[in-house]
Amino acid sequence: MTTTHTPPHIRLANEISAQFQQRDPAAAAQEIAQHIRAFWDPRMRAKLIADAGAPGSGLDPLAVAAAALLPPATGG
Amino acid sequence: MTASGQVATVYVPRDSAARSVGADEVADAVAAAGRPVRVVRNGSRGMLWLEPLVEVETPAGRIAYGPVAPEDVEGLVAAGMLDGAADHPLCLGPTEDIDWLRDQTRVTFTRVGVVDPLSAGDYVAHGGLSGLRRALSLSPEQVVAEVTESGLRGRGGAGFPAGIKWKTVLEAGAELKFVCCNADEGDSGTFADRMLMEGDPFTLIEGMTIAAWAVGASEGYIYVRSEYPDAIATLRAAIGTAYDQGWLGKRVLDSELSFDLFVRVGGGAYICGEETSMLESLEGKRGMVRAKPPIPALEGLFGKPTVVNNVLTLGSVPMILADGPAAYADLGVGRSRGTQVFQLGGNIARGGIVETAFGITLGDLVERYGGGTRSGRPVRAVQVGGPLGAYLPTSRFDLPMDYEAFAAADAMVGHGGVVVFDDTVDMAGQARFAMEFCAAESCGKCTPCRVGAVRGVEVIDRIVAGVDRKKNLKVLGDLCDLMTEGSLCAMGGLTPMPVKSALAHFPDDFGTTTEEGR
Amino acid sequence: MSLIKEQDYGTPARPGEATVSVEIDGKTVLVPEGTSVMRAASEAGIDIPKLCATDSLEPFGSCRLCLVDIDGRKGSPASCTTPVTPGMKVRTQTPKLAELRRGVMELYISDHPLDCLTCPTNGDCELQDMAGVVGLREVRYGFDGENHLDLPTDSSNPYFDYDASKCIACSRCVRACDEVQGTFALTLEGRGFATKIAAGAGGSFMESDCVSCGACVQACPTATLQERSVVELGMPTRSVLTTCAYCGVGCSFKAELRGDEVVRMVPYKDGKANEGHSCVKGRFAFGYASHPDRQLKPMVRERITDPWREVEWAEAIEHVGRRMLEIQAHHGAGAIGGITSSRCTNEEVYAVQKMVRAAFGNNNVDTCARVCHSPTGYGLKQTYGTSAGTQDFKSVEKADVILVIGANPTDAHPVFASRIKRRLRQGAKLIVADPRRIDLVRSPHIEAQHHLRLMPGTNVALINAMAHVVVTEGLVDREFVAERCEDFEEWERFISGPEHSPEAVEEITGVPAAEVRAATRLYASASNATIMYGLGVTEHSQGSTMVMGMANLAMATGNIGREGVGVNPLRGQNNVQGSCDMGSFPHELPGYRHVSDDAVRGVFETLWGRTLQSEPGLRIPNMFDAAIDGSFRALFVQGEDIVQSDPNTKHVTAALSALDLVVVQDLFLNETSKYAHVFLPGTSFLEKDGTFTNAERRINRVRPVMAPKTGKHEWQIVCEIAQAMGYPMKYDNAAQIMDEIAITTPTFAGVSFAKLDQVGSVQWPCNDKAPEGTPIMHIDGFVRGRGRFVDTVYVPTQERSTRKFPLILTTGRILSQYNVGAQTRRTGNTAWHPEDLLEMHPHDAEVRGVRDGDTVSLTSRVGETSLRVKIDDRMPVGVVYTTFHHPVTGANVVTTEHSDWATNCPEYKVTAVEVALRNPAPAPAAPAMAE
After folding, report:
1. Contact between chains at A44 and C586 (C-beta distance less than 8 A)
2. Are C798 and C581 a contacting pair, CB within 8 Å?
3. What digits encode the pLDDT tens for the residues C841-868?
4. DSSP B181
5. Is A12 in Cβ contact with C904 (below 8 Å)?
6. Where do the structural domains in chain C lie, given as residue ranges?
7. Which CATH class is domain C299-372+575-727?
8. CB–CB of A75 and C897 under 8 A?
9. Which of B37, B373, C308, C536 has the maximum number of C-beta atoms within 10 A of its C-beta?
10. 216-275 in B: which are within 8 Å (CB) of C?
11. Spelled out in words, what is the top-level CATH class assigned to the domain C153-290?
12. CATH topology assigned to domain C387-436+444-566
């Protein structure tokens, strides 16, 4: 269960992932990555990419897959 | 057991006019007279000075006794009333032979006083339903055509041809249409609607059902004034019976017609006798006049095409359909065809219902039928057509009862009420009363009626008091013109009629001269 | 400019072509069928005297002043109630008519006070005018007759008086309440001469159902119903046309003034959004603009614990510019940002986002729409291609079925609600999806066919069930879908799944399956069905999904692209639409174009002379998170009290406390300014020059009635801060800002102040393709080409009721108050809503021992507050409700950090809470014990 103590970027990434559970995982990851690229500030994106690699992040597997598709943050 | 060995059938009216003078007690007394009798509570024959009028069924027809007080019953029974014995001062002989009744032409009221109002069997046995059966065998267009041919005009007062109104509703394209019966009989001196509803309710139900078939309506409402509790109860009981008999509801008399009928009770406003106010009231709103157009035939109850007719109009329809339009149209004069149910009241010796063909003179009604005043003093004025009708002097007793002839005399037939006054009447007071009545009963919508009536009272007071009489007579004249010409409905529009007629015919009462009064 | 008086044609216009030719006083005029003789005359330039007629109301025919002569008709029919017929010949002036009209006036005046010279409405009284017109010279009845001159005045309403002694019983007020407002609070009481206006059951106006919309005051031809401001100040002398600054309906008003003082706000008949109607806020609650609480001078302090120090503008601006630069120097360009306000003008908002993008050099700009309608932007963009409602308000007049979801128009969008109600009274059918039994479900002459009383948080399950019924019961408009849409087949497979059937989701939503099926059939089989929705849709963790779910439903049934249909967000604040249009979102430049689009960025870079960031910036909740983690250090807040309005107050205040610089630009010191270092006084709508864009994309002019009380327009302040930061940004006036918007933003290409002054208002897109604007969108094709069906998975919110927090709290707005109440709490509107109340079902109250009026604690897992209880069975069992108009309540102390997955819009509508008795209400005086 996500609680107040879950970092916001992880909570949000998981909530996005929940919307795509019924889809083919590859396509879902693609769409999630696209969404994050379009709407997230680079510093949140960077945190997500960083956490995606770490075990026990609490990230949904789809979010982890999406993070792998994200380009590293440039500005911010 | 009677002498002939049969249970006597005794008629004691249930009509509220009869009840108000002790008919219930008389009926109780008859039932308790010691001999087995069948008491039928019929409607009133309309001879109100003879109420309670007791009739006894005999092989020779019904024998009438009246007016019967409860304490008379014992003596009457002892005198052989239950066998139709004539040996009693109250015996009037065979009912049908009473000249007052015999000389009438009863069409709408043909069954009133004759039948048990709530007996379906009586109704059918006396010709009921034949109009409806025939109507259902015709197309709606044919029914409308027959009503048109009969010359039947609205009996509520306006005299608008019923057939034309029905045709408009028939031709109005709408899935839902209504037939509404205006039974808010508020005019002073009128009681025919009530007597029909109490004395022969199935006739009204049948008339409304024919109207529904003719115009394509599926729902009907009878709007009855709350002052008529007996009529309301009788109608409700009759409607229940009619449903049980298959005369109302789905597939009326196994035809394609479905028609539901409801009674709605008014709240005591005279203005709800005006058709658009009645519709507002039926919709649950304040009884206030609607501007026309749109006419109710096109946008009536809840905005749907609606027939609005008076009790007597709808009550005449079954006979017209049963006997054909020609029989009805053969009666009457000019453009006033058929019969009118006149009601004689006020200071009159023989008050009650006189149904007769149009064309009878006012004098005939008041003197031949009415027998002059009850006080025995000379007649001075007669008000015809309710509180907004003209006051006519005896010099106009030659007027035939006819819409057009009355209109030409600045008067109106209206709902057929005739109220008689003797020579003690103060006609300025009557004129003032007309304005007062309007002030009390105006719906309050239009200015000439709402404010004008109040000012009318004040101006008449000034005239009578002799304050600036000439100037105030001019003001009153102008006010009457404004009310006649500028009011939204007939209430304000007709209020000047009694005022102006009183002023024209009885100027002395205002302390003025004929010339000034005009 | 003098007073603007719109022409009164006496009766409403009838639709259709002008085909009936009539001759009036020798002039021939062509009018549509059904037009009254009075209106036809008026159109021919002939004024027939009238008192009870006015063109916002159906003809009534009571005053009898408008009598005319018509060839072939007997008597003198009233011209207001008589429709024209072909070839009709009418005379409006004859000696007889003059006589009658004078007679009518003579009667009126015989029962009217003769105090014209001291009457508050002197000079603006139709009775007085008509007495003049008909040439009344004498009242021959005298003045000692029966009259109403001693009737008392009802002053119970805070804004207007009802002086019964001046009433002419024309019934205009009653009819306005019925026909225009649809509240049916007024009636005529008594009969004949005793006829008088009564509120409710005969008590005072305040005791009645009156909602103080002002329609009766507007309709009254005399001083009977009169604004108290006119009584106190006198008649105004000039008008300025402007736009209301309350909700997203965007009503046009005439501000009527004496000098610079607003005497009254009068709804403007030619305003397209309101057509002469108003509500209690726009009509009367403008007093806050001159409230003594207003802070008119800039203030600065080093620490938020320091007292404020009033300073000159130059110092304040220099301070902000310097501190912003310092913070950027220490913490990076992305360490600062700004929030735009949906209450400010398009031009003011545009200036702020430009300051952030060009002067701050980042995309850290967001708007308060984040917390209300951001899911609308996302959802409609994904499905239809543009972030806006599809219809104009007028379109509802053609709707046969109206589906209202998560909106409470009679409270939150009252003027549009009146239009909905009027359509419903004409026979349109209504479906309401809402946990609460909102007033629209059942009110006078209106009853919803279906009230889908769903549990908060289950919108998506419900809309999916409706779509499931459409697809599985053969209700799809196949032709529309084939021609106009894409991705339908995949969506059809998705939505046909048995897990979406009404029966399957009944347990989730709480709505009986049969009811869902019946409602769906009603919606799908209507000729024209329209969806209206509000924050009950968006403020959820699945807000964006729900917006797309509604878009799917409308497309599948072909209810897009013509009058009477569509998907329509009811925007909460006056310029939510505009602030979004103006590029307030961190990922979008003006006109909803993504910051990553090189071509679009190029347009602005060329014009602004700065390189713009191509990555999205921080959204408001991200700003708070980043503030707490230290990467975000300074915030400029334009006209939004984020501490009171944003969820989880503790979190917000922790974030603000962590910032090095908070700059608040507002009318009043507020909850947020407690955490501010700089306060920049803002301007009220009466001082602003610019435009607001309402919920129907209508761009309305906001015109100043006075110079800024603060000495500066808000956009000027923003420009000067940018300049202080080294970025040259300057406009001579607001019109120049709109000109810049027009050249950079294709949907606004045809918009200019000059154009708006000329045509009144336009709905974007307004450009070469649609020079007069676009009332209805997606007529020939969707903005994105084909309408796209999107699979809308129902993902339940993680906010659930638990044993500890067994109730669900949902929040909303009330008619008399507005948002955080900064404006309305400073007006007479507090008479209706002095405090926020917690509404709860009698059962929930009973089991907690709570009675009406008791003070209770309201606790969620993030916070606790206390407020008084109103027991009301309009609430479903298990759900409680409150408003957030009063800071003392702090409703957002308890709301959580949950938010919409796509946009971060907070989930205000679902918070698990518990309620416990704190202080019982004072018991009513105990009856004396019988000994």
Report:
1. no
2. no
3. 999 999 999 999 999 999 999 899 999 9
4. E
5. yes
6. 19-93, 153-290, 299-372+575-727, 387-436+444-566, 807-919
7. alpha beta
8. no
9. C536
10. 269, 271
11. alpha beta
12. Dimethylsulfoxide Reductase; domain 2 (3.40.228)
